[in-house]
Write a structure and sequence with these properties.
The chain is of the alpha/beta class. It contains ten helices and six strands, in the order βαααααβαβαβαβαβα. The protein has a six-stranded parallel beta sheet, sandwiched between helices.
């Protein structure tokens, strides 16, 4: 299942390692995001044609051509800050999914390194991980800060691999969303899904996942079997 030269896991964060989104009032954030985009000149029709959700809107505007590059960059920073205020509400409340900490602490024994690529901001991710005392398990964390395009674009995955000093083909993407799998595959990285988020097993497989696990403990067991056969 896994490549013999597998060197690192690149995780999504929300609903893969921890259910941060359960503590975020997305519906309150969305109209504020739209209002800020309108103020910068994004047409209403373009906002209305965005995929569902805050990240769908964020990525849709980034792919549009309605704003000059400098104006778009400013708008994305301001909208990201609006969204981050809501995401920060979960920092002290969210717990890691069962089995996440066990896998993270077992990675050195498995001979694997770890990174995160997420549409959440890096500082929120780090605060959650530090609150749970597992931030040291990751050598690279790439949030939406500074990215031109979030997943399913491969930009973040490639940046994470660069930070780790590992080729994408020697990494394994791990995510709960079809967009996570698509981003991994577009970066040249094999990927697996965990059925702990919005996307169901058929969607994850259709996006290119090698396998879908019901949670992190099942992935941990599969990696243990891989290690035993090396």
């Amino acid at each position: 299942m896994f490549s013999a030269d597998l060197q690192a896991l690149v995780f999504d964060f929300d609903r893969t390692l921890a259910p941060l989104g359960n503590f975020v009032k997305w519906r309150e954030a969305l109209p504020l995001m739209r209002e800020r985009y309108r103020a910068h000149g994004v047409p209403e029709a373009h906002l209305d044609s965005a995929p569902r959700g805050c990240f769908g809107l964020f990525g849709h505007v980034a792919r549009g051509d309605h704003l000059a590059p400098d104006v778009l960059a400013r708008a994305q920073v301001e909208v990201s800050q609006i969204l981050a205020k809501y995401e920060a509400a979960g920092i002290g409340q969210v717990e890691l999914f069962a089995g996440s900490e066990a896998l993270l602490r077992a990675l050195p024994v498995l001979g694997l390194r770890a990174g995160i690529v997420s549409s959440n901001p890096e500082w929120v991710i780090r605060d959650v991980l530090e609150h749970r005392d597992v931030s040291g398990c990751f050598e690279a964390i790439v949030g939406r800060d500074g990215l031109r395009h979030i997943k399913p674009d491969p930009e973040g995955m490639l940046l994470c691999c660069q930070s780790l000093g590992v080729q994408p083909a020697s990494c394994l993407g791990v995510g709960d969303n079809a967009g996570d799998i698509e981003a991994s595959r577009a970066a040249g990285m094999p990927a697996v899904g965990v059925a702990t988020g919005v996307s169901k097993e058929p969607e994850l497989l259709a996006a290119g996942a090698l396998a879908v696990y019901d949670g992190i403990p099942a992935l941990h067991a599969a990696l243990g079997a891989w290690k035993a056969l090396r």
